[in-house]
Amino acid sequence: MSTVPKAEExxxxxxxxxAILYGNLGQDPEIRNLESGVLVARxxxxxxxxxxxxxxxxxxxxxxxxxxxxxxxxxxxKQLKKGDAVLIEGKIQYKKYTDNxxxxxxxxxxxxxxxxxxxxxxxxATAESWPNEAxxxxxxxxxxxxxxxxxxxxNPVPAGGVGEGKDDDLPF
Length: 172
Hints:
- The protein is mainly beta.
- It has a single domain, classed as CATH 2.40.50.140.
- Helices cover 8% and strands 40% of the residues.
- Strand 2 and strand 3 (39-53) form a beta hairpin.
- The radius of gyration is 19 Å and the shape is globular.
- It starts with 6 loop residues before the first helix and ends in a 55-residue tail after the last strand.
- Mean pLDDT is 77; it is low at 123-170.
């Protein structure tokens, strides 16, 4: 069994790159088999948080680009589909590249270590219970845009951000 050396034993500072996300898939995983035979899956994940301001509820949705390799890609291909609630553990990765117009860009990606599909996965990934019912976000029902567990715009790139929303600018 391998152990992680203590910082004082290696004269270095131990660092960590860990991302834990719980949200809903914005699309079915896109599966590619590379020339080397390695399987890779790519999809978007929406995470949302709600807050109350001046007595009115607001929701902010963030879109994350997720990449799974090898066994995790195979598992994603078999188990995941658009709208599924999933817990993802992985690391944050930044890639510098130049788009078709010669502009330097940076793409942010979450590389999956492992994931777990939530039970009743077609439901939204919001908490089922809150300690104080008055603080809970409004229920998701068939009235209004909150009814769909996946927001209407599954674009993982915000306007004016990396690639300005054009998938062909991404290095994948």
